[in-house]
Design goal:
Elements lengths: L2 H16 L5 E9 H12 L2 E5 L7 E9 L1 H9 L4 E6 L2 E6 L31 E4 L2 H8 L5 E5 H5 L10 H5 L5 E2 L9 E2 L7 E5 L2 E3 L3 E2 L4 E2 L6 E7 L13 E7 L8 E6 L3 E11 L3 E10 L1 H15 L3 E19 L4 E21 L4 E23 L4 E26 L2 E30 L2 E25 L2 E6 L5 E14 L5 E14 L2 E14 L5 E12 L1 E4 L10 E4 L7 E14 L3 E18 L16 E17 L4 E16 L8 E2 L6 E10 L4 E10 L3 E2 L4 E4 L9 E4 L6 E2 L3 E12 L2 E8 L7 E8 L22 E7 L4 E9 L1
Parallel strand pairs: 2-5, 10-15
Antiparallel strand pairs: 1-3, 2-6, 4-5, 7-14, 8-9, 10-11, 12-13, 14-15, 16-17, 16-47, 17-18, 18-19, 19-20, 20-21, 21-22, 22-23, 23-24, 24-25, 24-26, 26-27, 27-28, 28-29, 29-32, 30-31, 32-33, 33-34, 34-35, 35-36, 35-37, 37-38, 38-43, 39-42, 40-41, 43-44, 44-47, 45-46
């Protein structure tokens, strides 16, 4: 199928969504009324407004196909004593007034003089509003480039192996690049992947990927919703240059136990929640584990059966575990405890046996992952002022072991002659204490302020090696040390609705970072405004500055346990970014939202590996291998969304320029960033065909990533034969890979107790080029023994380039059972 044909089909589907008639189809049997109205909001786009507690104990049943809204509401609310009133796009629910009994006729009394005015004051009732958070942000807030992602949105995104993933959902947003195909990487507005702050219940996580980035560490079954910021940032966030993703895990039901079990091709997940003490305490637990290690057992058995002299073992698995306990002390006081544990485990073993009873054994064991625990207490002083106090610990650690063993084996006994073992590890530990205040003195003004302290402990890298050769042994240790740092953060921000059309948000974040006796101070101002020239329209502008004291050293573009988180040390300066953004927005009937945003970002004091850093001797510390630099990014993000109805859709396009310049890289000359994806298009359509069937389709197209191809070689006879010709890099990222595109499909079949998901990743099997490798032609003729000899003519062996294509069409299926 040609590319233009695919684009035309998807554009027609998305355009068709704009003309689809809104009729209500919904089914529920004895379900909580709040859940049913939330579903209605998603399907028709109406906002439901009702007093808090009105629906708390109400359960409803309804069966409707393409019926008018009024008829559906009548059926839902029948016998509940609740009525409704529709005003434009709002549906207000209220309890029907109870008729007053007739009172006996009062006896006539003598008139008395009036001594007081009637009491006309009344307490305003707390209201619950179910609406469209993103349309509201686009039109009413002063934020630029922010959005809320619900769990249902994540579940409806087609992905590889059917593993729903919040990061892969965000990859469909304009201005967000995925990096390597199929991976859960995120490069926002020309930044690097370590410039994104990932928060789980407001606590940072450092490693958010499994299997080299194929999956993220965020289990969808544990999610409630996600707030994402990519342009202007609230003052409470700092510490990263490009974006902030704040994941809130779901709380347990205070009345009933619920749960689900999901079984897929690559993993299984279970979640359960419910009350511990009804109306007071609840729990929520979610666990996920892959079973790649089980799948590799028969594969290894087949390989080993073909060669009895070799024995191979391979196993990989990842695990995620989330738990949350919530307790309501009173109407004003509540708290929760949150816990997360995630780990990857990889082990390989290869035994080789030879006819002369010699043997070789090669082993690799790797473990890496996160641990996070937090306690949070929230208290409302009154209706205008509340506070949140949080204490937490978060840790990332990795451990790698490689060993080689050789010797002889006779009569079942092994006699080791040479043993070589290398052990590497790194970690980062954070102890966190912080408090946040929210003050809303009147409907037009809101203030947020707070403070936080973090004690950091970094071990960027520690490697030890033990070598045993017969009776002699040697032990070596890398010249490395644990670094400790103290970080203090203070912030204050305000949001002021100056008038109906004009709103302004402002803030300031102060941070202090002390390490090795040196203290760094940084002020990060934030300012943005919104002007509404007409109802449903908004124009915004903003400026944001952010700072980063820690960065990740990566030698590849996939997430590996060898990646190191390191702080600024010695003479290094904190990384900073200054960003300006402008945007225009239009909401049509609260159903369609149009937005266009432009930005320009300047990044300072960036760090990267210098050219030829691998030639440094091993006793040199890691900081000596880095070089400082700067970068810029600019672009335009355009998006159209249809949020409600049987068909929902999104069209996104981004135009991006991103470059870097380092003193010790590329000769000090400016060069394009690796993920300088000039054009990026994302189309997504979800169609709820019936209560039983749903279909989702997404298409992604973008300019290829940039890589460095050596176009010249230099010869050194001392390195012959296999390194006789050495590549000479002329320009960094001098080649752009071919245009990338693919289509993903997802079919969902809802059943009585759950749903089936059938998905196709890369549906038309366009195997995209992910890199280009340098190889040699087969023109060289070796002697009969296939060996190289001094004096052999290598002039006929010519270097060539070969494109590497990796991922074909991948079908997947999973079943989720709900109870």
């Amino acid at each position: 199928m040609k590319l233009n044909t695919i684009l035309i089909i998807l554009l027609l589907l998305a355009a068709g969504a704009t003309g689809y008639a809104q009729k209500v189809s919904i089914r529920a049997k004895n379900e909580p009324a709040e859940k049913v109205f939330a579903t209605l909001m998603e399907r028709i786009g109406k906002n439901f407004i009702y007093p808090a507690g009105l629906l708390r104990t109400v359960r409803v049943s309804v069966s409707a196909d393409d019926r008018p809204l009024t008829g559906v509401l009548d059926e839902i609310l029948k016998g509940t004593g609740i009525s409704y009133r529709i005003r434009g796009n709002n549906v207000m629910l209220f309890r029907k007034p109870t008729p007053k009994p007739k009172e006996p006729k009062p006896t006539v009394k003598p008139k008395l003089p009036v001594t007081a005015l009637p009491d006309t004051s009344r307490m305003l009732e707390e209201l619950t509003v179910i609406g469209n958070p993103n349309a509201d942000r686009a039109i009413n807030s002063a934020e630029i480039g922010s959005m809320n992602v619900s769990r249902s949105s994540v579940l409806n995104t087609p992905v590889v192996f059917g593993e729903s993933d919040i990061i892969k959902t965000l990859q469909l947003e304009p201005g967000v690049s995925a990096g390597i195909e199929g991976m859960a990487g995120m490069y926002v507005h020309g930044g690097n992947t370590d410039e994104n702050m990932y928060l789980l219940d407001n606590i940072p996580l450092y490693q958010v990927n499994h299997l080299g980035g194929l999956f993220s560490a965020f289990n969808t079954e544990a999610l409630h919703n996600v707030d994402f910021y990519k342009s202007t940032f609230p003052a409470r966030y700092d510490g990263r240059l490009s974006s902030f993703m704040d994941v809130t895990t779901k709380e347990g039901n205070m009345k009933e136990h619920h749960g689900g079990v999901k079984i897929g091709l690559t993993s299984a997940a279970v979640n359960v929640d419910g009350p511990i003490w009804q109306e007071h305490t609840s729990y929520s637990v979610a666990a996920r584990r892959s079973w790649y290690d089980l799948l590799t057992i028969p594969i290894c058995a087949i390989i080993n059966s073909r060669n009895k002299d070799d024995h191979n073992m391979f196993g990989y698995a990842f695990t995620d575990f989330n738990a949350k306990i919530t307790h309501h002390f009173s109407a004003r006081s509540r708290g929760y405890a949150s816990f997360y544990y995630g780990e990857d485990y990889l082990h390989t073993k290869q035994d080789s046996h030879y006819s002369n009873e010699d043997y070789d054994t090669d082993r690799n064991n790797m473990r890496w992952g996160n641990l996070m625990a937090s306690l949070c207490w929230q208290y409302d002083f009154n209706t205008t002022l509340s506070t949140t106090l949080t204490g937490a610990f978060t840790r990332y650690a990795s451990r790698l072991m490689h060993s080689e063993e050789s010797g002889t084996e006779s009569g079942g006994a092994k006699f080791t002659e040479i043993f070589d073992k290398t052990l590497s590890r790194n970690h980062i530990h954070d102890w966190i204490l912080k408090t946040d205040f929210d003050w809303n003195p009147n409907p037009a003004i809101r203030f947020n302020f707070g403070a936080g302290y973090t004690r950091h402990s970094y071990l960027p890298s520690f490697t030890s090696r033990e070598v045993v050769n017969g009776e002699f042994s040697t032990s070596l240790e890398e010249n490395s040390r644990t670094l400790h740092a103290d970080e203090l953060n203070l912030y204050g921000s305000g949001d002021w609705a100056v008038s109906v059309p004009f709103r302004v948000s402002y803030g300031l974040h102060y941070s202090l970072f002390n390490i090795d006796g040196k203290t760094h101070h940084t002020l990060s101002p934030r300012l943005s405004f919104r002007w509404q020239p007409a109802p449903g329209w908004a124009v915004k502008g903003g400026y944001s500055r952010s700072v980063q004291y820690v960065h990740q050293l990566q030698q590849t573009s996939i997430s590996l346990p060898t990646d190191q988180w390191v702080p600024i040390v010695d003479g290094q300066i904190p990384q900073t970014a200054d960003k300006i953004a402008l945007g225009a927005y239009w909401s049509l009937n609260n159903e369609y939202t149009f937005s266009i945003e432009g930005y320009w970002k300047w990044m300072h004091n960036l760090l990267d590996y210098a050219d030829n850093h691998y030639l440094l001797p091993p006793e040199v510390e890691w900081a000596e291998a880095l070089t400082p630099g700067r970068g810029t990014a600019k672009g335009i993000d355009f998006k159209i969304t249809k949020d409600y109805g049987k068909i929902t859709a999104q069209i996104a396009y981004s135009l991006l320029w991103a470059d870097r310049q380092f003193d010790g890289k590329n000769g000090g000359r400016k060069f394009p960033a690796r993920f300088d994806n000039r054009h990026k298009i994302n189309l997504m359509v979800n169609w709820k065909i019936s209560p039983k069937w749903e279909v989702g389709v997404s298409w992604t197209g973008m300019s290829g990533n940039r890589i460095t191809l050596p176009l010249q070689l230099w010869q050194d006879p001392l390195l012959a034969p296999w390194h006789y010709e050495m590549p000479l890099t002329v320009e960094e990222n001098n080649y752009r890979l071919p245009f990338y595109h693919r289509m993903d499909l997802n079919f969902r079949r809802n059943t009585r107790h759950g749903y089936w998901d059938f998905s196709l990743y890369n549906a038309y099997c366009n195997m995209n080029t992910i890199t280009v490798l340098r190889d040699y032609s087969d023109d060289l003729t070796f002697p009969g023994d296939g060996q190289w000899y001094p004096g052999m003519d290598l002039s006929t062996m010519k270097p060539t380039f070969r494109k590497v294509r990796l991922i074909p069409i991948i079908p997947s299926v999973s079943y989720t059972w709900l109870f």
